């Protein structure tokens, strides 16, 4: 394919470097991958800075890229991407409407494949499984704009002896798509519009077509059967490959990564069902024999939508494939139905009569289809390759993390093997559209920089008053926390069995706790606390009564009208329900006071309380490092500050003339397949160093992306910020207004950028007007779920990798793979532990502060070092991390014994949604100004 001159009159399209290589040409040396900086960015402008910036007239969704960063040590890193050459030819877009609206994609793909056997569809096009069909040529409809086709469904999707089902498919021309618009977009000469998005969508469907026909798949991933692990609960894990064509500066890139899919375990249905209910005896699958109704409903939710192969009752019949819709509450012997001759029989008798063999388990529950057919479990086999879009049990989550973890070099080698599975070179669809995937450019080498870590300051009394992180980590040796709180009154509440947590253990834990608190500067005034034992078997009422009893004894012992400053709670292993009850008791405002003890006839005490939970198995004989981590959490909960960055490293944040408030926000949605409520959270800094954050949280409509209560939550936090500045930091009232507002937003996909920016930025502006302040607002989306990974080219070389084999903390990338037009960058801010580290992707949607790349990248990196729980930098700015935690704690705002299902499964009727809002208890007032969530 000959090269086409660029419209700028320079190198040919696809050229790499100054030599003007032809499209797809210029193969790199086998010694290493080529360097990719993006076509525009390969040229340098004034001052030697890359100049791949968009044309001035081009509109953007977010902020236009102002420049490229220059601060830091320049390095190169590899990334899991290769070049793709954009086709030159027109792509034709058609609607493909199948008469049966409810067919799953796997069947519509099969139908369209059969349709394309018709001569007018040669060479074949690419279909998305829904309604979009893209063709490399114009289909001849004889002058018409559409045509109807009748296509028979082949295969075993219909019962034996019946003719194949025939489906009507209407093909209608929609538009002609010019890939030149996509080329102009990556070159920075064209805005993202419908023509660009459609061209990108079409090419992504093209590369999906071949693997979709041979592998289990979801949106952009394909899963093989070569690496499978059964993990219990009826699930198995499979290794897979993610792929996506993504526009970058001057190039279209193919991003390929490893992924893990959770599947239903294939095999006999009765075996899988027993695994789900954690039982060995098939007879246990009977409500009449004691199967709990709750377990029955869990099993029904698990199996709904699962496809099974059914051995029919009649001997010699071919197995049919059906989908389970529900379960019967009675067994096959108890389920009676009418035959065509008007007589009635039960399912067990029906199968015995036609097959000549009695069912082995006629009294256990049966599966049921949407059409009402009742199927004995023992006649059903779960088909392989079915993705499970269900809530993941906690122990399966742990297995999933372990299965997914690969060290960088191992991960890169496995990704390279994915080219054989995805088979771009063998795909007729890729060839038909003139799309070229330059596999020889994998992995790509891109320019990066290493940012220096901030100096961190500790408190008065430290032998070593500062720390310089190395590979994103430091230690607490000889250091006191920056600002600590005193614990005057406290109690220890033990929910572990007294036989396993004896008096000597009790004393040892108390002394270890006090000693280690002292070592970091936390003063524990009460040396001999109340110790109360209790059982969590009675649920929230019994747990709360035990906690109240401990509080009452603490009040009486200290002859005070104040309750304890904190409760140290010892939990047994597996005590998740007790933990939730403890947190509900301590964190939220309940109708009855948390501590309501009559000290005198007039005095009633009412307050929230800090709770610090420890597992009995961990805190007994724990080492000092364990207790140091406990102290980090406790001090933040009490209102202290653990560490601050040096003022020289954070001049923007600590500028006394321009007070800055930093906010982090997130929305947490329910598990796939559930329409349970979503939860939103907002945290905001209150101090002048931007290290102390206060929370707000709310419940909102399921899967709503916009933060519903952003106005009230942000208004409350800004008011508290100004109050803290005036009454804690003792500033004059007129000096307490924030001049700058940095808003970090998590949980937003690229497709929702425009919506979130339009609504949430406007809400923040309105709040500021209402409060009569005028801070300059910068709104940044922080993404964690992208698939770009960075790899050191020579891990053994000094400074190229940390001990885990990952790129060192502080690696920043803002060229090569970044957006063609908009202000975005990647920072790998944390040191590696296990597996391959993932950087955070920052997209700037609004920026009144007019940040340069250097300034904003440095600021984001600094914020990754103030996470109060750890002496390590984290992968995202601390306020974003805090918002994530507050979201995850939202379920604790419901009374554990209140009858509200917060299991993330099932459905919520619209008329019942208000009950979730009504039952959601707000945070106790005393916690709204503290980091209770630590």
Automatic annotation (TrEMBL):
Gene3D superfamilies: 3.40.50.2300, paz domain, Ribonuclease H-like superfamily/Ribonuclease H
SMART domains: DUF1785, Piwi
Domain of life assignment: Eukaryota
Domain Piwi: 566-895
SUPFAM superfamilies for this protein: PAZ domain, Ribonuclease H-like
Pfam families cross-referenced by the UniProt entry: ArgoL1, ArgoL2, ArgoMid, ArgoN, Piwi
InterPro entries: ArgoL1 (IPR014811), ArgoL2 (IPR032472), Argonaute_Mid_dom (IPR032473), Argonaute_N (IPR032474), PAZ_dom (IPR003100), PAZ_dom_sf (IPR036085), Piwi (IPR003165), Piwi_ago-like (IPR045246)
A GO molecular-function descriptor: RNA binding
Compositionally biased tracts (Gly residues): 11-27
Domain PAZ residues, every copy: 268-384
Protein name: Argonaute-like protein
Region feature Disordered, mapped onto this chain: 1-55
